[in-house]
Design a protein that fits this description.
This protein is mainly α and 140 residues long. Helices cover 83% and strands 0% of the residues. It contains 5 helices and no strands. Helix 1 runs antiparallel to helix 2 and helix 4 crosses helix 5. The chain is elongated, with a radius of gyration of 27 Å.
């Protein structure tokens, strides 16, 4: 359940408990049950997310083991696209625009959307780092 929705619902639940059970002991017991229900729901959601992540990890391992580049080659392709994008954004574009300005021309090389590129690169580097760690441990 959405975290932004849980807190107001708990507040409402506590207010209802206070009105229904005037006895402080009964209120404490009801609030404990409410907290347990919340915790059980969060643990179930966490478990579901973990199962989804494990399933995706298994799919990634199967795809990476494919000898066919059409299936297993998309990761290297994304890596090359990221590398070319970074080279363009941080080497080719500034040097070209600088030379154009130096020779009295208007800079014409457009910038890439660096935020999106960097999000993709950091994600790829994270996966690459995990793969390198596996290789160093001898598990790959």
């Amino acid at each position: 359940m959405n975290q932004l929705l849980i807190s107001p619902l708990l507040g409402i639940g506590k207010a209802i408990i206070a009105k229904v059970w005037p006895d402080p002991v009964q209120q404490a017991e009801a609030q404990l049950k409410l907290a347990q229900l919340q915790q059980n729901g969060e643990l179930a959601e966490l478990n579901a997310q973990m199962q989804l992540m494990l399933a995706q990890t298994n799919i990634n391992a199967i795809e990476a083991a494919q000898p066919n580049n059409f299936r297993g080659g998309w990761r290297p392709f994304i890596g090359w696209v990221c590398g070319v994008g970074l080279a363009y954004q941080f080497v080719v574009r500034p040097v070209t625009n600088g030379l154009l300005i130096a020779y009295g021309h208007t800079p014409v090389m457009p910038a890439l959307e660096a935020d999106t590129l960097m999000a993709l690169v950091t994600g790829m580097l994270g996966f690459g780092g995990m793969r390198t760690a596996e290789r160093l441990k001898g598990k790959a």
